[in-house]
């Protein structure tokens, strides 16, 4: 603990509360089995004190202090055990109830989602997570025929998975930004689609155009297109190419329903860091680059990773119960527990009365 006192982190605002409360925590510290590292605790504490006014903040602070005292600052421990390797088979097992869902250690409480809120991108957290990188095959489509072939591959995959309901597609668009006042952004240049860990399709639609098969595919409701600000992407696609994309799911809304229970505005990076302990590479030189020229390897990787992140987050968040449903379940469980306790209490009271009657009867028999 002395190490942290000597190298006190340069936090602002609510961080002073941490140091005020530090001497008040009783010694020795408790021992809690938690996979967080010190830097993650600092990030969690900062997010908690800045954004959470709910009950239990004091307990969370004490829990974080416990972890600091146990010296979990020098190395990462147990992280991998708490993070799901979300392959298709794992997702199916979670949905089938064969594997209990565990929330990642990025959430402020490893056993609940209380106090979670999106962190503004201006805040510099103490934690640097590993950068998420799509490791599957990236199919770059630049011509009309290549886009048609990619769309047919997607349709075949959806047909194979359709028995499980609407298939989620990680979806994103890229276009050339404008840096001149009064000049709007360029036409949609790149469309990226991902539906598994194996393959991601990056379509250079500004060169290939949007063939009729791709237009029908996007307007079909047999698949749900998931992304951040997906409605804005759909509006731009309608304006640029006349495609009326259907069946949309905004990950910001889904994240709010699953993590906070209130409407929050999440960006993709914040959601990925909060749920999966991964960072997204958002280098301005790539993100704000020219998406109309032939794409570089870095641009292809960036585009594929964004679409994969959307699909990946949807699969994880969709497997969680809504907070309201979770609250109802807990309330029902508590109600059942109270009924059971009341029943046990009544039964015990009856037994006690029976014993009293038997004792009186024995005393009378002895007296006579």
Automatic annotation (TrEMBL):
Compositional bias annotation for Basic and acidic residues: 343-368
Organism name: Carex littledalei
Lineage of the organism: Eukaryota, Viridiplantae, Streptophyta, Embryophyta, Tracheophyta
Keyword set, alphabetical order: Exonuclease, Hydrolase, Magnesium, Metal-binding, Nuclease, Nucleus
Main location per the UniProt record: nucleus
Keyword Mitochondrion in record: no
One Gene Ontology cellular component annotation held by this UniProt entry: nucleus
Annotated 3'-5' exonuclease domain residues: 142-322
Stretches for region Disordered: 334-368
Protein name in UniProt: 3'-5' exonuclease
């Amino acid at each position: 603990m002395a190490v942290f006192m000597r190298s006190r982190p340069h936090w602002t605002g609510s961080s002073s509360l941490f140091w005020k409360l530090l001497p008040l925590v009783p010694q020795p510290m408790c021992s809690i089995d938690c996979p967080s590292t010190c830097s993650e605790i600092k990030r969690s504490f900062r997010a908690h004190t800045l954004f959470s006014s709910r009950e239990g903040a004091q307990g969370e602070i004490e829990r974080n202090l416990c972890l600091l005292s146990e010296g979990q600052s020098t190395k990462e421990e147990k992280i991998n055990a708490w993070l799901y390797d979300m392959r298709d088979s794992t997702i199916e097992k979670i949905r089938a109830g064969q594997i209990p869902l565990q929330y990642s250690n990025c959430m402020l409480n490893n056993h609940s989602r209380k106090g979670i809120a999106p962190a503004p991108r201006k805040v510099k957290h103490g934690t640097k997570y590993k950068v998420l990188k799509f490791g599957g095959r990236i199919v770059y489509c630049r011509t009309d025929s290549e886009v048609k072939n990619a769309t047919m591959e997607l349709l075949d995959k959806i047909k194979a998975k359709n028995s499980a309901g609407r298939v989620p597609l990680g979806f994103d668009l890229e276009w050339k930004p404008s840096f001149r006042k009064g000049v709007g952004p360029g036409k949609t240049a790149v469309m990226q689609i991902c539906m598994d860990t194996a393959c991601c399709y990056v379509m250079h639609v500004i060169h290939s155009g949007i063939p009729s098969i791709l237009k029908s595919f996007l307007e079909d409701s047999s698949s749900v297109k998931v992304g951040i600000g997906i409605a804005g992407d759909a509006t731009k696609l309608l304006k640029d190419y006349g495609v009326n994309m259907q069946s949309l799911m905004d990950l910001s809304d889904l994240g709010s329903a699953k993590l906070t229970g209130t409407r929050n505005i999440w960006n993709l990076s914040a959601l990925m860091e909060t749920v999966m302990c991964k960072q997204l590479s958002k280098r301005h030189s790539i993100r704000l680059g020219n998406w109309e020229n032939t794409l570089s390897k870095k641009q292809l990787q960036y585009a594929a990773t964004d679409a994969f992140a959307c699909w990946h987050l949807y699969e994880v968040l969709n497997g969680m119960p809504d907070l309201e449903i979770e609250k109802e379940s807990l309330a029902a469980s508590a109600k059942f527990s109270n009924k059971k306790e009341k029943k046990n209490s009544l039964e015990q009271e009856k037994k006690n009365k029976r014993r009293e009657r038997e004792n009186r009867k024995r005393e009378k028999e002895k007296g006579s």
